[in-house]
């Protein structure tokens, strides 16, 4: 399968910045990123023509579904599957984009910490707003 240039750029960015993606073969990583692109579940930030931040997310109903790749039920938990930023302000910008799109339908945001055995953390959207958006 041939992937668009933007998908390749995002996959390369993730491979360079996320340990768990670095071990994946290229086709798997490209297909994974393409799924988020196809489902409009990504937020990217560029500076001077370079990708500097990327967030991939899925909407799920339960914490358990956070661990099921490609599961998107359009539920009330905004699960951030990957978030990479080269600059601290960029993370806030991506969370602002996510907030603007999903805060009306999502009651919580979740993410897993790969370095903590993939334990899911689920946080109320009001707390997310105070933490990331001031």
- Overall pLDDT, averaged? 91
Total strands: 5
Rounded radius of gyration (Å): 14 Å
Name the CATH class.
Answer: Alpha Beta
Order of helices and strands: HHHEEEHEEH
Spatial gap, N to C terminus: 43 Å
**Proportion of residues in helical segments:** 40-55%
The overall number of domains is 1
Low-confidence stretches: none
Which class of secondary structure composition applies to the elements?
Answer: alpha+beta
Largest sheet: 5 strands, mixed
According to CATH, what is the topology? Aminopeptidase
- Order of strands across the biggest sheet? 1-2-3-4-5
Shape: globular
Q: Tell me the strand percentage band.
A: 25-35%
CATH architecture: 3-Layer(aba) Sandwich
Say which CATH homologous superfamily is assigned.
Gcn5-related N-acetyltransferase (GNAT)
- Number of discrete helical segments: 5
Short overview:
This protein is α+β, with helices and mostly antiparallel strands and 134 residues long.
């Amino acid at each position: 399968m041939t992937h668009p240039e933007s998908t390749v750029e995002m996959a390369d960015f993730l491979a360079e910045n996320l340990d768990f993606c670095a071990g994946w073969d290229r086709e798997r990583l490209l297909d994974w990123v393409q799924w988020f692109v196809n489902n409009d579940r990504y937020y990217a930030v560029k500076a001077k023509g370079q990708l500097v931040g990327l967030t991939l997310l899925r909407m799920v109903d339960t914490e358990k579904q956070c661990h099921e790749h490609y599961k998107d039920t359009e539920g009330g938990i905004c699960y951030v599957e990957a978030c990479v930023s080269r600059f601290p302000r960029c993370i806030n910008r991506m969370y602002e984009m996510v907030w603007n799109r999903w805060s009306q339908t999502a009651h919580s945001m979740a993410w897993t910490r790969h370095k903590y055995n993939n334990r899911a953390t689920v946080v109320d959207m009001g707390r997310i707003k105070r933490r990331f958006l001031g």
